[in-house]
Amino acid sequence: MRDGFIRVAAATPKVRVADTVFNGEQVVRLMEEGYEKGAKLMVFPELCLTAYTCGDLFSQQTLLDGAQEALRQVIRATAGKDMLVFVGLPWERGGKLYNVAAAVKDGELLGLVPKTNLPNYQEFYEVRHFCPGNEIPVEAAWEGGTVPMGANLLFSCKNAPGLMIGAEVCEDVWVPCPPSIRHCMAGATVMVNCSASDETTGKDAYRRELICGQAARLVCGYVYANAGEGESTQDLVFGGQNLIAENGTCLAQSRRFVNETIYADLDLERLTGERRRMTTFPAGEEIRRADHYQVVEFSFSEPDCSGALLRAVDPAPFVPHDQGQRSRRCEEILSIQAMGLKKRLEHTNCSHAVIGISGGLDSTLALLVTVRAFDMLGLPREQICCVTMPCFGTTDRTYSNACAMTKRVGASLREINIRRSVTSHFEDIGQDLENHDVTYENGQARERTQILMDVANQVGGMVVGTGDMSELALGWATYNGDHMSMYGVNASVPKTLVRHLVRYYADTCGEKELADVLYDVLDTPVSPELLPPKDGEIAQKTEDLVGPYELHDFFLYYILRYGYAPSKIYRLALIAFEGQYEADVVYKWLRVFYRRFFSQQFKRSCLPDGPKVGSVAVSPRGDLRMPSDACSRLWLEELDRIHGQENKL
């Protein structure tokens, strides 16, 4: 399977109650459609070969014989098809009837998973017809031979690393301790559920939360196929709500009251990588042995998901798209940042804070966070000392915004022009003022940091760092310059999120004058302003030099959060930014990211303290324990191999 993706489907066929011939034909029809669309795993509802609502007809041998004949029809139809199918039917063994999910592939019945939790309350009376299924697999007679039957069956793909499938039936997932917990602890990465869950008011929302929540707590994919139109409406209505979830995220959901097939591509590498990272997630082999699991092996013969992915790839993974959720996230992050700084100020008995205010995004966010922390402590805002330090590259726009912003929040402002001190320093070291090299730039950054530290000593305060996580990932900070502070409030906030935090503050502050300044800061190009302006405008735009931050934040998320290979990140980026960045541009900046990320680790190894706000961070004391002299060779060589090749999305 390419990049660890597997295409799965959940299908609801139109059924006729007790018409096993018709039902088998409908399952086969949908199965063939699924095969044409590249589905490798397809799940059908509970008892769909007979219909769930047969009632006492389940005691009729004619119906049971018809169900087995319909199963034979499905099995024959899978011959030559490279897909695994789960379909529900009643199954007789030892004189008792069981509600099972049959696993079928390539003309063969691989196994039977019986329902272990039978509802017998309210509208359900399954105990009238069925027996609870056995957990430890036994042999069930089939076509002159036997097949394994038991809840503790896992289906493992020999040539798809990380693909192990467990099954449960409807009510099994609604009980306090679902079988899926045991199955995933035993190694299942994908759960399927053949279900017949009727509709009542509000049940659809609960069902969705249940399936997504189960996928989250078990770090698995979950494919849920529900009964729909065609079931008896004598007392119930079935809506056919199919769901495909992955680690808490709903990848696909069908409309209700319309029989539909839904498709999605599960990311097995994401699931297995997450489990590998979580030291609290058990290794499955010992559990399989202790709980007497039986593993049924199968193979896929064709590559999977080589075409367009059937899943959304978010170009801004750090930023929620829903406005309400984004606002809640921004409020939460601002509170985390402010609480971190509040604790540090309390612990050190600091009643003053010192911030280098440039009129740019990062220093703006740091000031807003500091204001919130001071308000929490009940400290006067004028004890926030904002220092503006104009030099060779400072523009009127950023200078004016820095001054206006400081005034509007009620902080104190101190202007220290560093042109003279930097010029004197350059004379000391023999640096030509016309040579605008890295020494020219970094000399200004280090002078500013020295001033901030000394001012902090003067007022008995703390220097609040402004650098963000995207800059730290790229090493876009002057070592012992803006790289250094006494507490870095933005250290785990990516640049794409910094922008939304400032905008959220502007939208909600209730002060028009302050909001207007913040909106203008948002419209200002990102720049360290270390080179002389051209015609009064910013001459040094960061994204022209190191690349678009939206690309780098995308790379950063998938490299650190999931450990994806360069080829997979490249593929996902092409999908996420289709129509915005050409393949060569994506390749160029991805290569820049890897090169800088590895070479600049020494800056991250000695970061000041700062609060973690999200699932990704680069602190050496937290998420990223990376040697400063690690080699990027393997990553860059993989990028070289894919460069110039036609990308098959």
Q: Major sheet, described briefly?
A: 7 strands, mixed
Number-wise, the strands total: 20
Distance between the termini: 13 Å
How much β-strand is present in the residues? 15-25%
Amount of helix: 25-40%
The radius of gyration computed from the alpha-carbon positions, rounded to a whole number of angstroms, is 30 Å
Gross geometry: elongated
The stretches of 5 or more residues where confidence is low (pLDDT under 50) are none
> Structural class given helices, strands, pairing?
alpha/beta
- With helices defined by DSSP (H or I, 4 residues minimum), what is the helix count? 20
Mean pLDDT, to the nearest integer, reads 94
Major β-sheet strand ordering: 13-12-11-10-9-8-15
Describe the structure.
By secondary structure, the chain is α/β, with parallel strands linked by helices. It contains 20 helices and 20 strands. The strands form four sheets. The chain has a seven-stranded mixed sheet with strand order 13-12-11-10-9-8-15, with helices on one face. The longest helix has 26 residues, at 323-348. The chain is elongated, with a radius of gyration of 30 Å. The mean pLDDT is 94.
Write the SSE topology.
Layout: E1 5-11, H1 20-36, E2 41-43, H2 61-78, E3 84-93, E4 96-105, E5 108-114, E6 138-142, E7 145-149, E8 153-157, E9 164-169, H3 179-185, E10 190-195, H4 203-217, E11 221-226, E12 243-246, E13 249-253, E14 261-267, H5 268-277, H6 284-290, E15 294-298, H7 323-348, E16 352-356, H8 361-377, E17 384-388, H9 396-409, E18 412-415, H10 419-429, H11 438-459, E19 461-465, H12 469-474, E20 487-488, H13 495-508, H14 512-523, H15 542-546, H16 549-562, H17 566-576, H18 583-599, H19 601-604, H20 633-642
Helix pairs in contact: 1-2, 7-8, 7-13, 8-9, 8-13, 9-14, 10-11, 13-14, 16-18, 17-18
